[in-house]
Amino acid sequence: MVDGTVYVGSNDGNVYALSAADGTEQWRYETGQWVFPSPTVVDGTVYVGSRDGNVYGLSAADGTEQWRYETGGGVYASPTVVDGTVYVGSGDHNVYALSAADGTEQWHYETGNWMRPSPTVVDGSVYVGSYDNNVYALSAADGTEQWHYETGDGVVSSPTVADGTVYVGSRDGNVYGLSAADGTEQWHYETGGGVGSSPTVVDGTVYVGSGDNNVYALSVADGTEQWHYETGASVNSSPTVADGTVYVGSNDDNVYALSAADGTEQWHYETIHWVRSSPTVVDGIVYVGSNDDNVYALDAGVEGSSEGSRVMHGTLGHHGQSHPGEPYGGKGGDSASDPTETETETPTETPTEAATETATQTQAQSPTEPATETTSTGGPGFGLISALTGLGGAGYLLSSRGSEVDDD
Question: Is the Cβ–Cβ distance between 296 and 255 less than 8 Å?
Fold first, then answer.
């Protein structure tokens, strides 16, 4: 959220700027294809990729195109902007470093397959995964490979970094803790399904979802499970944490609020379709998208905002207190406060209906009938893309909820 505006992409090919207060459209920009990645907003410019193969720099004020850079494949990853450079992956197998000012290419690095995760940049290194099964560490200055670590399947989870450790999931079902310095494995934790969810680290705990329907809380030190919570379908949404509560979506159509301490369900809100979007909390409001074509603004039940490693690094679900390129102390402290900017996640189509939403207060529950993961007909591949990318839709439902929040 920048100066009261939410920036989102949509399967209708547009990038939208919406009022955070009532969801009214401020402007839209049409690309040539679906816009899966969540836009990144830095210094008055909106950076976003499209399935048309382009990375765009747009004016945050009115959506005017400032520049575009054409890659050789669809751009499904959200750009990361650090020190005047845009880092982004493409379906042409490359990671690109582009000038934030004019889109000029500074370097590119070719991996062995297409790229969906968003890069994380810390201490001069770019950490990113590829569908070639590897996690890479590259020099932010020139793209030289520093190390790579091979997992057992494609890496569609965006890495996060805390206290010198890279945390990332793989479709092989594992969450990995790797040395940021040389890529050596420190630990791994095996879930029961592919991990497309992107981890976040808060106060010594890694929070991540899995295709086995669960949300996990793991120790940053050794990967020991602290708790898990079972939803009714796969969890491709990337969790966010605010004021001791974990917010996450599930393919069972619900948004969940769980206790960060023990995983107890605090409330859930049911949408009409998958929630692969990754929620962001700003000033007590949860912003989240659903494949039902709507963007939702829900009362979080807390007064704070999203915090943790992804916020610090300016990647998925970040807001104005991010410090891209700087290290994060995941064992405590360094959480964000006083947010002014929010990036939100998961593409859907243009919304067609407004609705009223109320989060359901419940006791913790463990559904006994697991659902089979299905693939979105609106997206490519096996449907994990929306776990990693922007809110989507345009904001009629956000408009409806915005009024209710003001009245609460």
Answer: yes
Q: Round to whole Å and give the CA distance between 190 and 154.
A: 15
Q: Is residue 148 within 8 Å of 133, Cβ to Cβ?
A: no
The helix/strand/coil state of 186 is: strand
* pLDDT greater at residue 213 or residue 373: 213
Residue with tokens 């990729």: 49
Q: Domain residues of the chain, as ranges?
A: 5-407
pLDDT tens-digit readout, 376-391: 333 322 222 232 233 3
Domain 5-407: which topology? Answer: Methylamine Dehydrogenase; Chain H (2.130.10)
pLDDT digits (tens, 9 = 90+) for 80-108: 999 999 999 999 999 999 999 999 999 99
Is-contact 175 184, C-beta < 8 A? no
Q: What are phi and psi of 193, to 5 degrees?
A: -160, 170
Residue whose entry in the numeric block shows the structure tokens 């659903």: 290
Taking the C-alpha atoms of residue 207 and residue 185, their distance in angstroms, rounded to an integer, is 19
**What's the sign of the alpha-carbon dihedral 109, 113, 114, 117?**
negative
- DSSP conformation class of 345: B
Buried b (16+ CB within 10 A) or exposed e, 320-329: bbbbbbebbe
**pLDDT 10s digits, 318-363:** 554 445 555 545 544 333 333 333 333 333 333 333 333 444 443 3
pLDDT at 196 over 70: yes
Residue at 155: amino acid letter:
V
DSSP secondary structure letters along 375-405? --TTSSTTS-HHHHSB--S-SHHHHHHHHHH
φ/ψ of 298, rounded to 5, equals -120, 150
Q: How confident is the model at residue 21 (pLDDT cuts 50, 70, 90)?
A: confident
What distances in angstroms separate CA 326 from CA 163, 276, 323, one per listed residue?
Answer: 11, 28, 6
First to last CA, the chain: 21
DSSP H helices, 26-67, are none
Predicted structure pTM score: 0.80
Paired strand residues for 202: 205
Q: What is the DSSP letter of 79?
A: P
Which residues in 182-325 belong to E strands, given as ranges? Answer: 185-190, 200-202, 205-209, 214-219, 225-230, 240-242, 245-249, 254-259, 265-270, 280-282, 285-289, 295-299
How does the average pLDDT of the chain come out, rounded?
80
